[in-house]
Every structure is written in C-alpha cells, then in structure tokens.
Design a protein that fits this description.
Rossmann fold, 19 helices, 426 residues, globular, 44% helix, seven-stranded parallel sheet, 14% strand
Length: 426
C-alpha cells in the first residue's frame, strides 16, 4: 500500500520541482525550499529529541514542550520542525532549541535523509502529523516515534478508514501515543495502535500560558478610550468575515461605540478583507500599517501574526473562527484562558471537547448565523453580571483541565527509554 501511495505522489513530486524553482527565486525563501526538499540538511545532533508540528497552533505546543524539557534540565539536544512557513516562524529558536527547520516533504527518501543527518534518539509528532513516509522511514532507521497531544477528529477518521491498509501497519509500529481524550484514544486503537502503546494524557492547549496583557497600556497604544467596548473575531476564514461584519453592524444599534478587532487566519487575505469592511461603509485601520490614533475607527484589522493572543485580552467577548465554515475550528481556549466569554460556530470538530466543556460550564456559546452571533454578543455586552459570570466560567474550564503538559513530557521521556525498534527492510 505504501508503494501505491508513493506512486500516486509522483505527479506531486514533479510539481514540487516547479514549486521549488518558483519559490526559490523569492528572496528569503531559498532556505525553505532547500529544507523541504532535503537538499539543505540539519546539522548533526546525536541523541537529540526531534519535536515536529504542522502549523501555528502546533508550534505553540512545541514551544511549551521545549520550555518544560528545559525546566526539567533534560540533557539532550532539542530540534524542532514545522510544515508551513507561518508555523516555522512561530517555532522556538536558538538558544532555546539547538536547531529549527522546515520538515521535508513526505516523498520517499526525504525523511530518511534528515534522520541520517540529525541522528536523533526520538521523534515526537504533535497532534496529527501522521505522514506515511516519515513514519515508515523512521521505523526503518530504528527511531522510536511517539505522538504527543494526539488528536483524530471524526472528519479525519473517514480518510484514515478509507486508507486503513496504508495507515494500520504504520501506526501499529508507533512506540507511544499520548491521546487528548478517551475518544481520540479509541480512534487510534481502531487504526492499529496497540493498547500497551496508548495513554490518555489530555490536551496540552489547556496548559498554554496566556500572554501577559496590560489592558490600559494596550488601549493607550491603540488610542482606545477606557470605556470603549471591544469585540475580537479571531482566526476567521473566507465566508466568516461577512457574517461577523453583519453581526457587528447590527450590534452597533444598542452598542454604538463598539469596536471590532478582526484577525483573519491568513494575514495575506487582509487586502480582500479590508475591501469587504469598507464596502459596508465602516472605517478601518490596519495593525501593521496604519499610523496615528486608531481609537476612532470602526474596525481594527489585524494583518500580521503574533498579536491575536494579546488582543483577546481587550475583548468583552470573542468569536473564534474556522467554526462557521467546515474547517474544524480553531483554539477556543486562547480567549477563555484570559477570562473572555467565547463564541463559536457549529464546526468545532478539531476542538470538540474544549468547545463542549465551555458550553457545559456556561463560558462558551455556539452560534450558527449573524442573527445568533449578534444576539449573544449584545446580551453579553449589555448584561454585566452575565458577562462576568461567563468570564469566570470560561477561565475556570481552562484551570480545571490543566496538567496535560507534564504528562506529555513524561511520555516523551519514556520514549527515550523505550527499546529502539529493530531496523527493517521495505
């Protein structure tokens, strides 16, 4: 089945050559191309722990794992990798880690080149980075592989079940799997992970430290008066900004001074989103490009990465995107950890347990359209007692579920002590 997988990847491998030629000509991206095609290899770090995530969300988990390993004074080199350019930029950098790089594309032969260059003692995969050639070539090299903060959403399971002949032999060779929940654990077992290899460690995202936010200083920097209410809509996708803007315009009837802070998931969409804002007759400032006071604008558009976490601290209520469109949702715990009531749509498969926990506690609220979003928003912002209660309940959910980070690092250290799998031949 792996041979068929690689045969099907041949057209993509050819396309990668064209991508490499085009992207390699863009200033600053030559290194990315070299690392993705395993032409530029990481330096040798014998005995290193290699921690790999996909994008921005996983990079925050990688950073937390690194910090906890350093706190425990683990005497091993630490190397980290990500798939996307945005995820790579969010990875911890030296001296916090010994090396950071783009993971190679999952073409046959590329992962093994990186493994031979690094000579790591263990590979920890964050959440769902179950790439067939990476898993297969790690097993061939005798490298113990574990999954940390493992998650398998129902939507992903359809794909994995369809290709069970490919994934079952690979997942059966995983040394250890730390699943976020009992449900995730059951799905890993269904796909071939052995019972002795499975542990339920919880969700590290409950343990992510919220940013320190000096609300008065941040308001002053943005030119916001102390009493102006703020609604933050974070990590929005195409198809969601229209709903958010409609709800915002309706909410401004009873809340005329309300400010919308709008942060698209992909900042490269900012020009398009700004056009949609202006077509509604709203004034807009861009966080990364506007000059002068911004407090008199209707909308603050967040067009650069790395600011959303702190901006949630300004919010009287927050909407987390990727949930009104079928992408699986984004991190509802980020505003909750700051004590901000959280609104989200029906598509929260990637954060199903945290979303349900917030709803059960009364700190999170599911909305399906602009009318529902506007109603919940106005209710929270006009009813001080309800907002304070929802704030405390949201923060309480995060506090009550912490501890997964320590358990996950224990699992990672167990991975170092596990017998190395015998090297096999394809």
């Amino acid at each position: 089945m792996l041979r068929l997988y690689n045969t099907l990847l041949l057209p993509l491998r050819w396309s990668a050559r064209l991508w490499a030629w085009r992207t390699g000509r863009i200033p600053g991206r030559e290194r990315e191309v070299g690392e993705r095609l395993a032409r530029e290899l990481p330096p040798e770090k014998p005995g290193a722990i290699w921690i790999h995530g996909a994008s921005v969300g996983e990079s925050r988990i990688v950073d937390s794992l690194v910090r906890e390993l350093r706190r425990r004074a683990i005497d091993r080199p630490l190397v980290v990798s990500a798939v996307t350019p945005t995820g790579r930029r969010q990875l911890p950098a030296p001296p916090d880690v010994d090396h950071a790089f783009h993971a190679p594309l999952d073409f046959a032969g590329l992962p093994s080149r990186v493994i031979r260059a690094l000579r790591p003692s263990a590979l920890a995969i964050v959440e769902t980075e179950l790439w067939p050639n990476l898993l297969h070539e790690a097993a061939l090299s005798g490298l113990p592989v574990g999954v940390v903060n493992g998650r398998l959403s129902p939507s992903r399971m359809h794909r994995y079940r369809r290709f069970a002949g490919l994934y079952r032999p690979l997942l059966s060779r995983l040394t250890l799997v730390g699943a976020q929940s009992d449900e995730d654990g059951a799905r890993f077992l269904e796909l071939g992970v052995t019972s002795p290899s499975l542990r339920v460690t919880g969700n590290i995202k409950y343990d992510l430290e919220p940013p320190e936010v000096d609300v008065d200083t941040l308001r002053e920097k943005l030119g916001l008066p102390p009493n102006r209410p703020v609604f933050v809509a974070g990590s929005t996708h195409d198809g969601e900004e229209e709903t958010v803007l409609d709800a915002f315009l309706r909410a401004r009837g009873p809340l005329p001074s309300l400010l919308l802070v709008l942060a698209p998931r992909h900042p490269e969409r900012s020009d398009d989103v700004e056009g949609r804002i202006r077509r509604r007759g709203l004034t807009v400032a861009r966080l990364g490009g506007a000059t002068g006071p911004r407090g008199d604008r209707d909308v603050l558009l967040v067009d650069t990465l790395g600011h959303l976490g702190r901006l949630y601290g300004l919010a009287a209520a927050a909407f987390v995107g990727g949930s009104l469109v079928p992408t699986g949702g984004h991190n509802v715990l980020e505003p909750a950890a700051l004590g901000v009531p959280v609104l989200f749509g029906p598509h929260t498969q990637d954060f199903a347990e945290p979303a349900w926990a917030l709803m059960r506690a009364g700190g999170g609220f599911r909305v399906t359209n602009a009318d529902a979003l506007q109603r919940e928003l106005v209710s929270l912002l006009t009813d001080r007692h309800r907002r304070r209660d929802a704030s405390a309940r949201a923060r309480g959910v995060v506090t009550a579920n912490r501890g997964a980070l320590g358990r996950s690092v224990d699992l990672l250290l167990s991975l170092l002590e596990a017998p190395r799998p015998a090297e096999t031949r394809p």
